[in-house]
Structures are given as C-alpha cells and as structure tokens.
Amino acid sequence: MLPLILALALNEVRLKFFKQTVQMVTYAPYFISTVVVVSMTILLLSPRTGLIGNITDLFGFGSIDFLSNPNFFRPIYVASELWQTVGYSAVIYLAALAGIDPSLYEAARIDGATRWQKIVNVDIPGILPTAAVVLVLGVGNVMAIGFEKAFLFQNSLNLSQSEIIATYTYKVGLLNADFSQAAAIGLFNAVVNLALLLGVNWIAKRITGSGLW
User: Fold this and answer.
1) Which of 47, 78, 73 is nearest to 61 (CA)?
2) Cα–chain center distance at 4
3) What is the reported pLDDT for 56?
4) Residues 96, 129: Cα–Cα separation, whole Å
5) Does the reported pTM lie above 0.90?
6) pLDDT tens readout for residues 150-203
7) Under a CB-based contact definition with an 8 Å cutoff, are residues 201 and 194 in contact?
8) 213 occurs within a structural domain
9) Three-state SS annotation for the chain
10) Which structural domain, as residue segments, surrounds residue 19?
C-alpha cells in the first residue's frame, strides 16, 4: 500500500528536480546490504550510544533496549523493511502510471476533474492490473520472509518473536543435522505458499480481471 501511495504522490509532483530527488532518496536504500541496514539499526537503537536511546533518555523514559524486548522486534523489522523497499517498489507503479493513455487525463481536465478525482478515476483504475500482479507475487512470498535480516536481529532475549520458519529450519537442519525434519518443514512452507498464491491469484482475477495466469 505504501509504495502505491508514494507512486501516486510522486506522479502529482510537477517540479522535476524535487520529484527526482525524492525518488533517489527513497529507492537508494534498496541497494544497501541487509547486513549494513541491520548494523545501522542496531547502532541507532543502542541503549547506550544510540540516537533513539538518547532521545528517550532525554524525555525521561530512560534508555530502552529495543532489540532485547520481544515486543519491539516486529515493529523494528517492518520499519527497516519498509525503509529499504518502499521507494524501489514504487518504481513499478510509476512505470504503470507512465503507461496510462494521456487522452484520459485530457478528458478528465476538460470535464473539470480535480486532482483527487483524477487519481480516483484515472490513476487507480489504470494501475489496478499492475497492483493485482504485485499483490499476488507478494503473497506468494509471504511465507518466505527474509532469513538474513531476521537472523541478524535475533538474540536469546527476543527469540520468542524473532524465530521464523527460515531460522528454525536453519537450526534444525544445519545446526542439529536433522535433515528429515528440515525437509518436511520446507515442504510444508512450499505447500502453504502455493495455496496462498493460487487463492490470491483467483481472487485478483475475479476482482480486477488480472492475475499471473
């Protein structure tokens, strides 16, 4: 949803320099290594030297060890993932917006449509097929949440929230050498992914008429 909103907002910007600057700033984090992103996050959230820790201490909340509290793992993971991927994902929608027939915008202008009406009646219907395909692809990978970032953020204190299928399979299969159980977990993961992919693709085709097949 956020990449879609960002793309629609950037599409309305008329100042070319500002638009290109925002695009560069938002999709540049995608090319930063996951290890670097995790290291930056750990340094930022450090209870002793981190900026966030200093701010919470300044306002009287004390230095909070975010990475040791299981309740903060999911918000930290999601926030870092959004920061790293939202801008790059918005490029797909910007490309779809660029492919909309200009005559539709001209007709909307002649009819006296406002910017909001143009977004609702021209932009969103124009990129809906692309959004449906992106949604199907995203749901197909929902069970394949990034192993690397979760594993790097993981510690013994936040294990109750940071343990995911990928990290558990790694521990069972490689560290404990229980290859049969690891294979069973991988097969279960693949079956669930396939079921989600087929289901969401069917729903997307029923609603928008577009899907992967």
Assistant:
1) 47
2) 11
3) 74
4) 9
5) no
6) 888 888 888 888 888 888 888 888 888 888 888 888 888 888 888 888 888 887
7) no
8) no
9) CHHHHHHHHHHCCCCHHHHHHHHHHHHHHHHCCHHHHHHHHHHHHCCCCCHHHHHHHHCCCCCCCHHHCHHHHHHHHHHHHHHHHHHHHHHHHHHHHHCCCHHHHHHHHHCCCCHHHHHHHHHHHHHHHHHHHHHHHHHHCCCCCCHHHHHHHCCCCCHHHHCCHHHHHHHHHHHCCCHHHHHHHHHHHHHHHHHHHHHHHHHHHHHHCCCCC
10) 2-208
pLDDT per residue as tens digits for the range 118-141? 888 888 888 888 887 887 777 777
* 110: amino acid identity, one letter: I
What CATH number does residue 139 fall under?
1.10.3720.10
How many whole angstroms separate alpha carbon 89 and alpha carbon 69? Answer: 30
Structural domain count, the chain? 1
Asked whether the CA dihedral 27, 31, 34, 38 is positive or negative, the reply is: negative
Number of Cβ within 10 Å of residue 199's Cβ equals 12
C-alpha–C-alpha distance, residues 84 and 101, integer Å: 31
| Ramachandran angles phi, psi of 141, nearest 5° | -105, 10
What is the C-alpha separation between 96 and 128, in angstroms, rounded? 9
